[in-house]
Amino acid sequence: MPTLILLMIFGAAAFSFWSAGRAAAERAEVVGRDACRAAGVQWLDQSVHAIGLRVIRRESGWLGFERTFRFDYSIDGEDRHVGRLVLRGDKLVAFSGPVTRAPAQLH
């Protein structure tokens, strides 16, 4: 009986970790797509890739995860650039990637 309870606790913890990871990946996908749209560049592969995970201490003092994601974008359709974003929970804390283009000429 105690083995079954421990197995259930472990299963619930594993499911919670997986679910939080999927939610962070979906949030990163939205942020990456919106950044590419705002910069007027093409978002490639229609996905983000998790490249890092580390344990951090939140402002509240509790432990949490910081997840790093990578995505690709193209300025003219022939090149490929790498963008990177870091999420703590669902909060964006770092971003490197396409920036909005400056207007060519104002009248």
Please provide a written account of the structure.
The protein has 107 residues and is of the alpha+beta class. It contains 1 helix and 4 strands. A 4-stranded antiparallel beta sheet has the order 1-2-3-4. The longest helix has 38 residues, at 2-39.
Which key phrases capture this entry?
107 residues; alpha+beta; 4-stranded antiparallel sheet; elongated
- Cα radius of gyration in angstroms: 18 Å
Strand order of the largest sheet: 1-2-3-4
Give, in order, the helices and strands: HEEEE
Q: Which regions are unreliable across 5 or more consecutive residues at pLDDT < 50?
A: none
Helix content: 25-40%
Overall outline: elongated
Largest sheet entry: 4 strands, antiparallel
Distance between the termini: 78 Å
- Rounded mean pLDDT score: 89
Task: Please tally the helical runs, counting DSSP H or I stretches of 4 or more residues.
Answer: 1
* Class by SSE composition: alpha+beta
Count of DSSP strands: 4
User: Could you tell me the strand content as a percent range?
Assistant: 35-45%
